[in-house]
Amino acid sequence: PALFMENARKGSIVSRANSIGSTSASSVPNTDDEDSDYHQEPYKESYKDRRRRAHTQAEQKRRDAIKKGYDDLQAIVPTCEQQDFSIGSQKLSKAIVLQKTIDYIQFLHKEKKKQEEEVSTLRKDVMALKIMKVNYEQIVKAHQDNPNEGKDQVSDEVKFNVFQGIMDSLFQSFNASISVTSFQELSACVFSWIEEHCKPQTLRDIVIGVLHQLKSQLY
């Protein structure tokens, strides 16, 4: 009995000790779990902050690029630098900058087309001048090869007299047929005169008559 009582007492002490230990253990905070939660929460916030910061930087970079683009347009387009009295000293809006840029681009397209047409015309002129140059060179060469050729040709004065005689004859009929009372009547008379006095047979007769007059004067 004494041994039994001693074992029971020891068991009771051990049981109470375990109970006290478990109670103490349960009352002590779980430092490992809390340390884990304490470190994980700032990590999540830091990740969100980094994402937010990266998004903010990307957005700011995009806005800076757009602003630089508009600033470059204002510096390039001449009409954006001109003073707009309707706006005053206020800064040009993006809509106005874009519209002025579009207008300037359309103006440049028109100028480019105009210049291309002028270049095409000049090329044609150059080609015509080259052809004339070749023809004159051939005439000069032919004259140098045959220096006696053309001695019997009429002078420039005779050619002018022929032209003058033809024009004088035409002007006489023109002056007699044309009325200048009004522009409408003038137009009608001009067409009527052309139909009557500028027929091929009529012009031929005039030229023959002028040549006969000059022939009698020359010989």
From TrEMBL:
Predominant cellular place of this UniProt entry's protein: cytoplasm
Transmembrane domains' residue ranges: none
SMART domains assigned to the protein according to its UniProt record, in alphabetical order: HLH (SM00353)
Composition-biased stretches (Polar residues): 15-30
Coiled-coil portions: 105-132
InterPro entries: bHLH_dom, HLH_DNA-bd_sf, Max-like/E-box_TFs
SUPFAM superfamilies membership: HLH, helix-loop-helix DNA-binding domain
Name of the protein described by the UniProt record: Max-like protein X
